[in-house]
């Protein structure tokens, strides 16, 4: 593995995947899945779905990723079920990555950080997904809260959906900072000194945060297509959704992540694994099979 010795969240992450293998099992209680599992689309159905996932996945997956949106659908009762999933999976030994994709101005971001990353919160998880599109610096409160408690944030860089490409591959002047006022604007534009893709600028900002060896800042880079990013200096985890329902396979991963440190790559699947439920044994077997395919592909 490249880089400095790993501590903090990075150590917790590497220990978890070292023990259980590289798979993040998504817990996405889609209405269609509830129906497929023979459950009502209601809080009762959600609770049963969640309990099956905790029992099947919590003891074997290195990381579980509840998708907050599917709990939010049911309002406060859904959030109560989410709290139960978070605690249950942690007690079973999995790291919990709350897929909340939060992002806002810094002062509001601080409240999101309290909600998802501080011990006092009933939703406190081991990590949370965040969006950098209000500016990478707006994520500072979450990065600080995570760093202070050996937790992590996973920042969207190059997402698995086709709609992300136009924004994420756009070229930016990486040294550009907004003038404080109109009068501060230069009379003529200066030549851009460094240009890079938006996603690469996020990778580079994350790598700078990880220079302390804590791997506090992970990235989200989809497994569904070549991304063209240089991830070699990141020294942090790379969540890679897209396996299964979105079409990527374990065999795609080595070429998608050529040049990255594969020890950090954490492929994720939700529907591709959850389709094996509601039987606990079958669901756990599907999770282990997907993990084994990933480990075999990485060699
Ligand atoms: O942050 C994520 O997890 C995420 C990022 C991304 O680029 N693409 C993506 O699909 N996801 C999430 O990963 C899960 C994918 O679900 P499946 O397609 O069923 O495996 C969903 O919860 C998505 O919200």
TrEMBL record:
Residues 22-286 form the Orotidine 5'-phosphate decarboxylase domain. Gene3D superfamilies: Aldolase class I (3.20.20.70). GO terms for biological process: 'de novo' pyrimidine nucleobase biosynthetic process; 'de novo' UMP biosynthetic process. It holds the Pfam family OMPdecase. Pathway: Pyrimidine metabolism; UMP biosynthesis via de novo pathway; UMP from orotate: step 2/2. Its EC number is 4.1.1.23. The active site is at residue 101. The keyword DNA repair does not apply. InterPro entries: Aldolase_TIM, OMPdecase_AS, OMPdecase_type-2, OMPdeCOase_dom, RibuloseP-bd_barrel. GO terms for molecular function: orotidine-5'-phosphate decarboxylase activity. PROSITE patterns: OMPDECASE. Keywords: Decarboxylase, Lyase, Pyrimidine biosynthesis. HAMAP family: OMPdecase_type2. Belongs to the OMP decarboxylase family. Type 2 subfamily. This is Orotidine 5'-phosphate decarboxylase. The lineage of its organism: Bacteria, Bacillati, Actinomycetota, Actinomycetes, Mycobacteriales. The gene is pyrF.
């Amino acid at each position: 593995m490249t880089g400095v010795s790993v501590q903090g969240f990075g150590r917790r992450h590497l220990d978890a995947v070292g023990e259980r293998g590289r798979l993040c099992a998504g817990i996405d209680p889609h209405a269609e899945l509830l129906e497929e599992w023979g459950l009502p689309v209601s809080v009762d159905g959600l609770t049963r779905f969640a309990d099956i996932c905790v029992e099947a996945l919590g003891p074997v997956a290195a990381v579980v990723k509840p998708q907050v949106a599917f709990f939010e659908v049911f309002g406060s009762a859904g959030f109560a079920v989410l709290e139960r999933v978070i605690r249950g999976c942690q007690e079973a030994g999995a790291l919990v990555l709350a897929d909340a994709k939060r992002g806002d101005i810094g002062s509001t971001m601080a409240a999101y950080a309290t909600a998802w990353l501080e011990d006092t919160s009933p939703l406190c998880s081991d990590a949370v997904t965040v969006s950098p599109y209000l500016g990478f610096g707006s994520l500072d409160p979450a990065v600080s809260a995570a760093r202070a408690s050996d937790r992590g944030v996973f920042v969207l860089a190059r997402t698995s959906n086709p709609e992300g490409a136009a924004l994420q591959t756009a070229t930016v002047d990486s040294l550009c900072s907004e003038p404080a006022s109109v009068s501060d604007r230069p009379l003529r534009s200066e030549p851009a000194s460094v240009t890079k893709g938006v996603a690469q600028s996020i990778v580079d900002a994350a790598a700078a945060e990880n220079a302390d060896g804590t791997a506090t800042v992970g990235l989200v880079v989809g497994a569904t297509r070549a991304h063209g990013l240089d991830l070699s200096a990141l020294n942090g985890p790379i969540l890679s959704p897209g396996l299964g329902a979105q079409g990527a396979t374990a065999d795609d991963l080595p070429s998608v992540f050529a040049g990255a440190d594969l020890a950090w790559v954490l492929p994720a699947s939700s529907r591709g694994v959850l389709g094996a439920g509601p039987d606990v044994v079958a669901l756990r077997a599907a999770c282990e099979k997907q993990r084994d395919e990933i480990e075999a592909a990485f060699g």
